[in-house]
Each structure stands twice: as C-alpha cells, then as structure tokens.
Specification:
The chain is α/β, with parallel strands linked by helices. The protein is built from 6 helices and 9 strands. It has one domain: 3-Layer(aba) Sandwich (Rossmann fold), CATH 3.40.50.150. About 20% of the residues lie in helices and about 25% in strands.
Length: about 220
C-alpha cells in the first residue's frame, strides 16, 4: 500500500509490472516492520529492508520472512554504488529528515543507471489543515508555507518524534537537485470502498483534499 487511501502496488505498478520485479534488487527505506519488502519478496524480488529504528526491525523479525534487515541511517546508506535496481519508501524516512536531499543523493548513488525510486509522503497541502477526520478538519488552520517541523518531546525535553513539512514545489526541487528525473506525481483519490477512519484520515476528507503524494523518479 502506498498510503491510507488504499492504493496498492498491484493496481498502481509504480515500480513496474509485477512480473518484471522478479530477480530485481530493491531497497526499502524506512521499512518499519518490512511489510512492503515481504510483498516484494513474494513477487520474486530481492528486497533489503532498512530502518533507523531497531524496535521496528524487531517487529519485522517477529513477523518473519526471507528479507534481510538493516538498521542504518537513510542519509548514510551502507551499500556500494549501484547495488540496487529499485528503491521504494511508503511514508518512510523522507518526511522525518531535515535534509531530504542528503537521502535522495544517497539513494541515487546506490541505484544502478535507469533505476527507479518511488516514495510516498503525506500530501503537503494537509499541513494547512487540522489533523481531524470530521468537518473540523476541512478548514485551513495554518499557513501551507510555514515549514516549521512538527515535534513531540518527552518529559525531559528530548525530541521523540519529528516530521518535516516541505511544500509540493520543495519536494519537486529536492528530487531534481538530487539528480533524479521526476516522471510522475500521483495523488490518489479516496476510493468509494474505503470506509476507514484513522487519525486525520477519513472518507469525508479524502474525497475533498488529497492525502498522499507519490513521487516516481528515475536515475538516468
């Protein structure tokens, strides 16, 4: 799944036709419990699941599956140049780094020529609205252009969760400045079958404003 709307890779084929994934080396960034990597492995690909969170990778170990797990920073990938055919990230890594170009350049380095990167993030327009699923989440409450990060702290004042806002233009410029060619920008519409509510996600909001932005990039 590329986001809460429910767009799945079988339908979207953003990484390419499923039958062409067999034998491909794929890096998943911000893999969490490696759900995407397990799906890729089931298609015959050779995924590697990377996350900076040791606890998330422990979940992946408990679930199991034939996927190598790597605990590392996406801005300093522990792989040789040209190690992968594809890279993907569904709401992982990129929203949580202050310098996304550092990550994108690292991904470009480890991709082979012609390699593809597909990543999804919360659609930037969502930052201007409250994170509420009901009607109160449909009124603008802040500036879309305010790039102040969202930060949660523990009782000692240490940051335990940080998410960075980039406008749509920022994201496009980051992709291009990092040496990629942007070939598609997908904004999934909320499907009629999806009746789920989760956090600020809901059919009410999803049919009116975009929730996810998916960037499809190529390393020429």
């Amino acid at each position: 799944m590329w986001g809460p709307e429910g767009l799945d890779e079988v339908e979207a084929e953003l990484l390419g036709p499923p039958e062409e994934l067999k034998g491909r080396d794929v890096l998943e960034l911000g893999a969490g419990a490696a759900q995407c990597s397990r799906w890729l492995a089931a298609q015959g690909a050779r995924p590697v699941a990377l996350d900076i969170s040791h606890r998330q990778l422990q979940h992946a170990l408990r679930i199991g599956g034939p996927v190598p797990l790597v605990c590392a920073d996406a801005g300093a990938l522990p792989f040789a140049d040209g190690s992968f055919d594809l890279a993907c990230s569904a709401y992982g890594a990129l929203p949580f780094v202050a310098d996304p170009r550092l990550v994108l350049r690292e991904v470009r380095r480890v991709l082979r020529p012609g390699g593809r990167l597909v990543f999804s993030v919360t659609h930037p327009i969502r930052w201007a609205f409250p994170d509420e699923p009901g009607p109160e989440g449909l009124s603008v409450s802040g500036s879309y252009f305010d790039r102040t990060p969202y930060v949660e702290q523990d009782d000692d004042g240490r940051a335990v969760y940080v998410e960075h806002h980039r406008t749509l233009g920022d994201r496009v410029r980051d992709v291009v400045a990092s040496g990629f060619r942007l070939v598609d920008l997908v904004e999934p519409q909320w499907p009629a079958w999806n009746t789920s509510e989760w956090g600020g996600w809901s059919p009410l909001r999803g049919t009116l404003i975009p929730g996810t932005a998916i960037f499809v990039c190529v390393r020429d």
